[in-house]
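Ticket #4471: complex job returned nothing on first submit. Input attached below:
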Amino acid sequence: MSPSGAVSLAVVGATGAVGQEMFSVLEQRRFPAGKVRAFASARSTGRTVAFNGTTLPVGELKADAFERDRFDIVLMSAGAKISREYAPRAVSAGAVVVDNSSAWRMDPGVPLVVPEVNAPDIRRHKGIIANPNCTAAILCVPLKPISDAFGLERIVVSTYQAVSGKGARAVAELEAQTRAWAAGQALPHNVWPYDMAFNVLAVDWKVAEDGTTEEEAKVMEETRKILGLPNLRISVTCVRVPVFRCHSESVNLQTRRKAAVAEVRRVLSGAPGVELLDDPRAGRFPRPKELAGSDPVYAGRIREDGSVENGLSLWVVGDQLRKGAALNAVQIAERLIQDGL
Amino acid sequence: MSPSGAVSLAVVGATGAVGQEMFSVLEQRRFPAGKVRAFASARSTGRTVAFNGTTLPVGELKADAFERDRFDIVLMSAGAKISREYAPRAVSAGAVVVDNSSAWRMDPGVPLVVPEVNAPDIRRHKGIIANPNCTAAILCVPLKPISDAFGLERIVVSTYQAVSGKGARAVAELEAQTRAWAAGQALPHNVWPYDMAFNVLAVDWKVAEDGTTEEEAKVMEETRKILGLPNLRISVTCVRVPVFRCHSESVNLQTRRKAAVAEVRRVLSGAPGVELLDDPRAGRFPRPKELAGSDPVYAGRIREDGSVENGLSLWVVGDQLRKGAALNAVQIAERLIQDGL
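Support reply: We reran it on our side without changes. The output follows.
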C-alpha cells in the first residue's frame, strides 16, 4: 500500500461482463483505491472503462505488465488460461491476485473464498485467492448458516442460470434471438447451436464421460471446499434459462438436526449476505429479473419436505455477476486490506 | 356406439388451449368418431373449430346439453367448476367422461390414468375417468418403467414449466411482454403482476399455508395415485419459465435396487411413451422448444448420483398440451373404445 493507505489495483479482463461489473462494485463500495489500471487482451485495447467519474484507458495485458507497474491487488477475470499464465507473474511481482477463473479454485494451496462463509481462509493465501463459480458462491451464502445451525446431510440442487453467466456474447445472442422472433425472422445461432429464446438448456457446458457437466462438477466440489465439508453429499443439475441476469436455484436439503421452517427463517434473516423474501402469498418470493444488480443472496419458499427425515426445500436467487463474481472478488480484496494484505 | 361402430363424441372447453389440441390429436390419430360436437361457455359460442377438414360450430354448454343429444364419450377441459357440475350430468345421460380438470382426480372412486402406466384402472370407472395434472402425467411415463425395474425410494423434482400450462391468455401475455421489450415499451401485466419475459417464477399457483403450491401438491399426490404407490416419498418444486410449450423436469431419484445408467437407458428405450434422447456430448438432450407438439415424453441426462445410495438423475421433457393433457385424454378414450366403453 502507498503511505496514504490507498491501494494500487489492477483489473484484468476489464472489458468483460465481470470486469465491467467490478468497476461498478469498486465505485459503489468506495473501494480505497489509489492507482487503478485496466487490462484486457489486445482485442480490447483502445477501449476505455468508466470509473469514479473518470475514464480509464484499457491497456493490453503483456508479459511484463506487473513488473513495469507495481500493484497491491490484481482482480483477474479473463479466463483460466490467462490466469494460469499471469497470476503467478503478478504474485512474483508482489501483488495478491483475486482470481475469478476456475484455474486455481481446487488447488489445495489456494483459498477458495466467499467472505460471508470462510473469510478466515483468506489469511492462508500464498499470493492467489480464488473466487468461486457463481452458482456455488450464491448457494453457499444461505447454506453456511443452515449448516452451522442444523448440519447438512445431503443437498439436491437444480439451477435456473442466466445467460450472462456465459458472457456478454451470450447476452447479445439472447437479445438478438428475441428481437428476431418479434420481427418474425430466423433466429441467429452464433453462441448456441440451438434457440435460447423461449427454451431451456439442460446442457450448456462441457460434458464429462459420466454425463456430468463441468458446471455441475464445479458447483459440487467448490461447495464442499468453501463450506469446509469435504464429504458433503451434494447432487447438482445445472440448467440455462432465458433470463439475462441472476441465477436461481431450487435447493432441497436434508439437515442433520430437525430444521423447523420458523427456525430456518430466523437463522437466515440474521445471516450475513442473505435477505429473506419469503411470503409467497403476498407475492414476496425471489424473482431473478427484479433482483438483477443487487448484492444479497435472496432466500424464499422455505418449507418442510416430508419426503425425508429433516427435509427442507428453499429457493435461492443471486446476481451471478455481483455476489457470484465481481462483488465477491471485491469483498475478498476489502478483507485483504483489513488484514494488511 | 352407433351400429357402424363410430363413437359419438363431445368436447367441452373446445376453444381453450387443451380443447383445440384435442381436435388436433383426434384428427391425427384418426379417432373413430361419428358425431362430434364442440361445446364451450357462452363467451365462445359463435366461434368454430377446425376438425377433419370440416368446421364445427361451438355450441354453448347448457344444463340439458347431454339430454338433448346422446354421447358415448365426453372429453371435458373447461376447469374444475364446470366439471363438477357437468360431468355427473353427462354420466347420468349415459356418457363416459374423460375429465381434464382437477375436480375428480383424487376421488377414490375415479380412476386417474396415464394409459402407459395404469391403463387397467380405466375398467374401474363409474362414468368419470380423470386425466392427470400435466406435470404429473409427464413425470409418470418414465417413472413407471424405472419403478418396475428398480423400485422407487424417493423422488425430488424441480420443474421448468411452460406458460401454455396457464392457458391461452398466458401465452398471449408472454408474447406481448416480449414484443413490448423488443419495442422498448413498458411490459403489459394482465395475467401476471410480474414480468414473465426473461424471468423465472417459483410461485405461479395458489400457495397453501405450509408454503406448498397447489401445483406441487397435485404433482405429489397424483403421482402417488397414478403409480399406485400411496406412500411414495416425493418432493416437488414447481417453477414457471418463459417457454411457450413443453414442460421440463429435473428429476432426482433414489431407487430401491441399484440402477446402473446403462440399465436405465435400456429400460427406458423399451418403455411405452418414452423416447430416449441421451447423448449430450453430441447435442442430444431434450429441449422443450424443439419438442413442442410431439407425443412422447423425452428422457435424457441419465446419470448416477453418488450423493445417495442408488441415486440417479435424469431430465424429462414432455409437451404438456399433448401427453400432459389432450393426447392422454384421447388415449384414455381409445382404451375405452377398445374395452367396449
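The CA atoms of residues 244 and 317 of chain A lie 13 Å apart. Closing as resolved unless it happens again.
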